[in-house]
């Protein structure tokens, strides 16, 4: 079974880090490839980066061989709905994967993301996925995505751990969701130190997509995710912009 | 990895059928056992059956060797929260597993369950899981759980297929969720005939629990699912009821 | 008119205290009996205790003479739906009674319960009853149910009063709901000292059930609370577990 | 104990009918008076009638001796919040009383009111009281309030019964809520014929207010229902409108 | 085009201040008149003031020449639904206008109103308008409406600015909504000093009503806002109160 | 004042038609330009078209002179959040403009869009804007966007009118929202024939954006819509994809 992980941003080091995590956690026999659109923003910070990335992801998948399933490795679940329309295999965002999983493990969870500007995007997603009451808070560490790579791991880890400890206490939550694909490699160590489930979206999405593929379940092609219709204009586009 | 599937009702044939499905869909290397509490109701039809079953499930798991993860094979997700408190491995109800999965595959889904009396229970669960807008309707086939076994498979299948076709059209839904553990063996055939994803909770829950186990994620022991406290009364119980 | 109050836990002293409160507040002519299932947990702290208690409550009512109405004296409203299926008279949980009453008296209310682990259960109930915006917070005093009995009344009362004062101010709420059947005897004194309505679920539920009985209104037997169906298995249970 | 029932409209026959119902269902020892503001609209059909009636109700209660508790006998719960600010005793609308009671008796209920224009008002109230999922529909009989009096009882009853039967089936609801104070006298007969609980707001509100009074619970005077502040303008009103 | 602004309270200075603001911000060609009902409360502080004001507003508009559109200049949107029934032109409350506008300008906004007792009214409105997740908090400055006039502008402005700064930070909101018609004249200066959009309901409502009039859009006369029916009682009112 | 209307699809005829409508309804002194990205899909039918269009819209506005305000002329409100981040003037989608306006004019409204696949997108938007209870239904005419141009106006108008009549009756709604920018030119005629407000998003959005510009209100630059940060990677992109 082949899973394509699409890192919406164009950071190759983060893509490699995500690929490493995914290969470590996937089932034996699963073939993982991680790719990122070279022309995408270097990191996804907000709606505008997300919209640019969605476009480049659609081009990337159009030009790639079909995989059996797909993971979108941005916690904002950028472009997931759009990809679902064009692909037959299951497509899963790491945000929805992690948040759904957290509801299976804990009464209440909190999300720790990078920047304040991503908070309303994640709140809106959580509301749309219907997880409002389960999710007691979405918080920013104020550590940008790229700084997660730059800063020595220990320094970034300390900041994340300190923020996680604080928000779990403030929110009285029983589990932590890592709200960025770039925090993937911290999940296990953080879980050990915090003593509660720490849910990483990349790992969870890979395993959930494996599950859906294994069950022969793909994206529905009968409704809102049906393939886009071929459109032929009654008026030539050349004329339109003459 | 060992997964214990608990069929809340005491129907051994249904338990065996569930076990067969689970073994067919699980990953290689997963050891599946399905069990049912012998003193539970023969089928779970409503809140009262559910409350009786929850008690017997707690006794069953207390007396069983710990597994790595657990599936509760009733679409009402009977007793799932209670089990989570007493168990360290992940515990997943087939209702939540199927409904979360359906949101990953389709814009809108409908649920087909057995009896009308289960409809508000499932509606309440869907609301609590926050899936209201994704779930366009919960419908009853009026075919009781046990009749799914009794009636020749072809007869039951025809009723289910006819009802499924009708509700997908009425609700304009893109996927069907099978709202009863006893419909498990119909999922694949139904999916082929309907041309949309047909999500079976048993299969999905098995794969999702495998996923969580594989990621070393268990039930949080720090909050609402912490182990029950030992209680010692200041007043002896004998005295209490003297 | 005869009302049976079922204390889900097996604490006889608490049951007697609840019975005393109920007899003091009920209308003249109402015959109050309080009972508790002897094999139930000593206190209801979380989902697992609640599931055990629900089972024992069903057995208790099966073995009791029918009453005209029923009160379930645990703020989690443990087993209320299950009891409604098996009983014709109205059945009311003290959680729902108190929270509905609070909306009749105040724009916004807060709940003070015992342990943190009960908070998400009560939050979920409040959401299900639709009281989200009216209920500004559910808080734990960290005083376990049984400690309410053990500690001298003055000591426990001081803790409760201090916590109540703090949360009313923090939440800017106009009324307090006592979130545990074991706090019943504090209600009047606390109301006098705080100067806002302090709603006790036991008293309120008794009076509301009296109201429904007086109006000849019982539990609907036509839908989700209809009597459980008799089930006869096509396959003998002995065979099932052979 | 003295309860004042305020019929927001100025129909004396309806006021008398409401008073009769209330006296029949109240506890012994309760002194019921029903009154209506003589200058109010003849029936409350929509927001504008409701706003006029609220004003006249405030004047009526300002000029009346204080009662121990109050019932507002319009299903729209017209003016209830305003009255709560000016009165110390509990104030209950028949809409909220009936809808809260219905959730205590049935999994799902439907409301039958008079005119289509009242439907969104009741829907908004139900949403505000948080009863959305419990209330499966609000329907109009197209029989105006005053026609309930005019038409011979048998003719109006037939229309109501026919509409009730139809909507219970369509909504698959287990209880009916009568959505108008003018339907009060039909409740018992309708309940007998339909075989499900038929909840009348007038009766229910009277008993619930009795309950709250009996528990020494009044309207909170500490927050949103505190007494209106005395206002003294820095600028004389005469000057203002000179 | 003629717009009538109705200040629900009877403060002539505030009415003049509102009129000045409106005339300053309206389009050229728009004829603005602001009026207040002379017998209304001096300020609208809570539900009771609001109910009195609604009545006087209905009388005021009944006695006024029809305008092309109407603005209700109280942030509680007092009487707006009632006015809509009796008027053909669009009617807009300053609360809804400002809150809808804020969602067009910012991801998340906070409301700053006068007194704590108005907070639940505005929260309820925001919930009814469906803005829950966009509105991160409704806060009181504890400066009553009339004090906004009395205190020298600089003193009142300092209090408002200090409160605004504090709540924007606490709520992490990107825009401020002024929750009182009496704060209108502070909007521009406050926006300059805070560096985020400061939305004033009076200005916004005037422009939005202009927009609707310009588009020939008036209040629907076909449903819940249809004109009130003429009512003729079968029984003379004289007889009713004989 | 200059407003740029961005038609997300690349249909020049539709862009011209939108521009004509906008110029007809705008205030005197407003300078309207409508443009469409030449490489965008010919019509926006679903998430994938929307994602492609969002990208091209961002490029279009990056290359255009800044306007004072912006309208996005697709009822799905495609790319609106992304544009808000990059632009200082107010940005309004025709979907949100029309749905907010409808709540100002009618108790309940229905939306008529083109294809079934757009229904869940609009439902999700309505839920996110919080208009759930006000919006009684989103319906498809099954007339694709481009067919609105192709078919003679009379033929398309007949289909729209017939569908509108049917859904207003079925939903018991008091106003109709036209759920596609391509229906703009039908609004007035349809409103005349149906006798209820027919809200067109293009016209409404133009007037609302004029309003916001006139009030000096722009997109907040302090939070979720702040300008995207400049990002400099620690690792050269060339290296990344070497």
Automatic annotation (TrEMBL), chains A, B, C, D, E, F:
GO molecular function: amino-acid racemase activity; hydantoin racemase activity
Catalytic activity, EC: 5.1.99.5
Entry superkingdom: Bacteria
InterPro entries associated with the record: Asp/Glu/hydantoin_racemase (IPR015942), Hydantoin_racemase-like (IPR052186), Iso_Racemase_Enz_sf (IPR053714)
Catalytic activities: D-5-benzylhydantoin = L-5-benzylhydantoin; D-5-isobutylhydantoin = L-5-isobutylhydantoin; a D-5-monosubstituted hydantoin = a L-5-monosubstituted hydantoin
PANTHER family registered for this protein in UniProt: PROTEIN DCG1
Annotated family: Belongs to the HyuE racemase family.
Protein known as: Hydantoin racemase
